[in-house]
Design brief:
61% helix, 7 strands, two-stranded antiparallel sheet, alpha+beta, 5-stranded antiparallel β-sheet, single chain, de novo design (two linked rop proteins), 2 domains, 253 residues, disordered N terminus
Length: 253
């Protein structure tokens, strides 16, 4: 029998000998254990006590510890509980991060849609104003084509069409600001077409000053070409503006 083996209340330890199987010293009696975790009934004063043999390491040699079933079950339960708590915590963190990412994505999409809706509304108002200002100029030009040319040519920037042209320029600036580029390009074509018609009309009025007939019948080819240019550029602007409004939606990533 080996001596010097540590002992404590409720636990019996046995030192591993240099040869042979592990032995345990319990109250002066030697107990033999053939394998780890072997259940054994300890005799003598510990008769009727059932324990579990577990191997531990410490000091200079390996030790075999006999632990009661209640303690072993408690240890196993504690470890299992800790593992379960850890797994639950990790799972909760993972689920929470997923929910936060999803909520952030939904919020970004909502904000993007709100911004896009507001941008579409502003652009629609700008485009409608531009078309209204163009129609105002067209009406002034139509009236000048229908009326007989004045006796004296009107000074530049003092005729009835010029204020309407200025308001059209202001509306054009808003289209340039709001965009997009393809709509701004078509708006430029409209403005240039109107400017060209205005200059052509002034040349006709100067040429036929004092004539009691309307300018359009005097120059039907020029008048027809001017009206055709109006329709072409106005329709192209309207088509491009409508497409820009319909296509203005937030990007989904």
């Amino acid at each position: 029998m080996l001596s010097g083996c540590p002992r404590s209340v409720g636990i019996r330890r046995a030192c591993r000998p240099s040869a042979g199987r592990p032995t345990a010293a319990v109250d002066g009696e030697t107990q033999w254990y053939s394998m780890v975790n072997e259940r054994s009934s300890l005799g003598s004063t510990q008769a009727g006590m059932v324990g579990t043999v577990v191997r531990c390491w410490g000091g200079r040699a390996a030790e075999w510890v006999v632990v009661s079933d209640a303690v072993a079950v408690g240890l196993i339960t504690s470890v299992s509980t800790l593992v379960a708590v850890g797994l639950t915590g990790v799972t909760s963190v993972w689920v929470s991060r997923g929910q936060l990412r999803h909520q952030a994505m939904v919020t970004a999409l909502e904000h993007g849609e709100q911004r896009a809706a507001r941008r579409r509304e502003v652009r629609r108002e700008v485009y409608v104003l531009f078309l209204a200002r163009a129609d105002e100029v067209y009406r002034r030009l139509d009236q000048r084509w229908a009326d007989p040319p004045p006796q004296q040519p009107e000074a530049a920037r003092q005729d009835q069409a010029y204020p309407a042209l200025r308001r059209l320029d202001e509306a054009h600036n808003r289209v340039l600001l709001e965009g997009p580029a393809q709509v701004a390009e078509q708006a430029e074509f409209v403005v240039n077409s109107i400017g060209e018609e205005y200059r052509e009309q002034r040349r006709v009025l100067r040429a036929y000053a004092g004539v009691e007939q309307g300018a359009a019948p005097l120059e039907p080819a020029r008048h027809s070409a001017a009206v055709a240019a109006r329709v072409r550029h106005r329709d192209e602007f309207t088509r491009t503006a409508r497409q820009a409004i319909d296509d203005d939606h937030p990007a989904v990533s």
